[in-house]
Amino acid sequence: MHACSDHASCVNEALHEADRVCAKKGLRFTTLRRKVLRLIWNNHGPAKAYAILDQLNHENASAKPSTVYRTLDFLMSTGLIHKVNSLNAYVGCSHPLRHNECYFLICKKCDEIQECCDRGLSQAITETTNKNKFNANGVTLEITGECLECITKNRT
Asked: Cα dihedral angle (145, 80, 16, 47), rounded to 10 degrees?
């Protein structure tokens, strides 16, 4: 389901973009933040916090859950990652400076997650919240199903 054709290039571009975002916002992109972001991007599927912690502990046995969660909070606040609430997991954002109109397609067979953006969908949500006199603090839309690759595999 994911459109990445050169994974190493994809990961490197995400890290390069993170450098630009942090520099633009005047934030430090520390070694730990870089490592956690790389771990999330290493697999285009969802990354769970404790799996990240386990991977960090292979390099540094002093990593703690609170450290991982603080790092994930930083990466989310800068727009570098998204939390997929239904999976309690994290995915990298391919366009961190402009992701207010995004939603996720989640394949229940292969666990791939595709980030999609649609201005019309975002406007419909805004119109609905305004009409209902509701101030939304955040919107997360997650659509589950099967990707074309998994559907095709099931037919053969």
From this structure: -50
pLDDT digits (tens, 9 = 90+) for 37-71: 999 998 767 999 999 999 999 887 788 999 999 99
Domain spanning 7-92 has what CATH number?
A: 1.10.10.10
Classify 90 as helix, strand or coil. Answer: strand
Give the domain ranges of the chain: 7-92, 102-155
CATH 1.10.443.10 applies to domain 102-155: no
Query: Could you tell me the pTM of the whole model?
Result: 0.85
3-state secondary structure of 4: coil
pLDDT tens profile 94-122: 888 776 678 899 999 988 888 888 888 98
8 A C-beta contact, residue 46 and residue 84: yes
Q: Which residues contact 93 (CB under 8 A, 6 or more apart)?
A: 79, 80, 81, 82, 99, 102, 115
Q: Helix (H, G, I), strand (E, B), or coil: what is residue 149?
A: helix
